[in-house]
Amino acid sequence: MRLISHFALAFLAAFATLAIAQNDPLPSWNNGPAKQSIVQFVNDTTTLGSPKFVTKGERIATFDQDGTLWVEHPLYSFVMYALEQVPALVKAKPELGKVPPFSTALEVLKGDHAAMDKLTMKDLEIILAATYSNRTVEQFNTEVTKWIAQAKDPRWKRPYTELTYLPMQELLAYLRANGFKTFIVTGGGQDFVRTYSERVYGIPPEQVVGTAGVVKYGYAKDGKPYLFKEPKLLLNDDFTGKPEGIHLMIGRRPIMAVGNSAGDRQMLEYTHAGNGANLSMLVLHDDAKREYAYGPAQGLPPTKVGTFTQGLYDQAKKQGWTVISMKDDWRKIFAFD
């Protein structure tokens, strides 16, 4: 009789543990302050009668992409795409291969890591303008779709689209299940991200705000209309450009914003300054074993890609923003872990 009782208790305990896991919308998150702040925020803003209740139409959540939703090291994927288009550009215009920054880009593609340090932000802007333009929107979308299906990250040897953070995928689904509309607000190319955002994140292209170039309406020889991508910048969706882009493209102030670097600071400030309930969060890359560790906040190694300064960390703590530690807050980082 006692044996049956012990067995029954063990079975019930196991069943209870499984039930809790199944009811947990964020199973890849450790039960720490970051997870608790998310659950509390969602409960507060979606419960009728709550003093912090937010109507469904105003439940706007914005997410940076690179370093927030997926891996950004050693280099942003949208920049890798641009660099890998340079050989074709040089083949069409051989004179470009003899002058920087295109000659420097060719050195990078040959494996010269020192050459990467030579590329300034202005150099990258020139390369991006040349490789993202002078074609129709449809042509660009076709090229990116083909590239993203074949390109692989140098460390994990997997497609970039497999390197999304599982905890963030769970968070996106959790928010949408509770009436939130989720947006990507990225410094990366808007048209680039729109080619895969719905398939990878469940975020449709119209809910992607990114750095955008000018497009011009025209007609093909057969009279069919098209949009042509010109080498002119319309919106630099980084730093102050993020809240400006949010206003331009979304038209509502977010009540939740998630980023990971200095380029996201103004988006979090804008969200935090809104009336009523809001939640601002920053991902800190502090797990060199499972992903990467960089800052230089909290004594982490400095980086040019996804810089998280100590000043930003201090601001987050002062204003009550939630800092997500990859090492401490995430039980799993990738679905394939």
Global morphology: globular
Amino-to-carboxy terminus distance = 42 Å
Mean pLDDT: 93
Major sheet attributes: 8 strands, mixed
The low-confidence parts are: 1-21
Number of helices: 14
Instruction: State the helicity in percent bands.
Output: 40-55%
Helix/strand/pairing category: alpha/beta
**Backbone CA Rg:** 22 Å
Task: Please state roughly what percent of the residues sit in beta strands, choosing from under 5%, 5-15%, 15-25%, 25-35%, 35-45% or over 45%.
Answer: 15-25%
The largest sheet has its strands arranged as: 2-5-4-3-1-6-7-8
The count of DSSP E runs of length 2 or more, i.e. the number of strands, is: 8
Along the chain, the helix and strand elements come as: HHEHHHHEHHEHHEEHEHEHEH
Task: Please provide a written account of the structure.
The protein has helices spanning 2-23, 33-46, 77-92, 102-109, 113-118, 121-131, 137-150, 166-177, 190-194, 197-201, 241-249, 265-272, 310-319, 326-329; strands spanning 60-63, 135-136, 181-189, 208-219, 225-235, 256-259, 279-284, 322-325. The chain is globular and about 65 Å long. Mean pLDDT is 93; it is low at 1-21. The protein has 14 helices and eight strands. The chain starts with a helix and ends in an 8-residue tail after the last helix. It is 43% helix and 15% strand. Strands 2-5-4-3-1-6-7-8 form an eight-stranded mixed β-sheet, sandwiched between helices. With 337 residues, it is α/β, with parallel strands linked by helices.
